[in-house]
Amino acid sequence: MSRHTIVLTQATKNKSTRQYADFETLAEALDGVCQMYETRLKQENPDARNITYDIRDLLGFLDSLADLSCMVWTEDIRAYKPYGKEWIKQKVYQHLRKQAM
User: Fold this and answer.
1) Alpha-carbon span 56 to 41, nearest angstrom
2) DSSP conformation letters of 11-68
3) Which tens digits make up the pLDDT trace of 43-84?
């Protein structure tokens, strides 16, 4: 079942850092959250050929964001249901763990 998801981020307290991205599925949104961190790592380490990180680094990055939330389409109520940073961190962890198996 497709669960369209909108991810809302704010990097700092400055409202001009607000961004959003929409994804066709929750899994794609979780990948997108991971890609946000990978993009940041590439910006901070432009000459590095390979960049590795672990889940603690990723979760630390998510904690450093001023705001992180998402809206997930929920068919039974025919509306988007909001979720916060802790829920997203839990889902990212589960998502990556499932991919590692």
Assistant:
1) 14
2) SSSSGGGEEEEEESSHHHHHHHHHHHHHHHHHHH-TT-S-----HHHHHHHHHHSSEE
3) 999 888 888 889 999 999 999 999 999 999 999 999 999 999
Long-range contacts, 25-33 (Cβ 8 Å, 24+)? 26/72, 26/91, 27/95, 29/5, 29/70, 29/72, 30/88, 30/91, 30/92, 30/95, 31/95, 32/7, 33/7, 33/62, 33/68, 33/88, 33/92
Question: pTM value?
Answer: 0.90
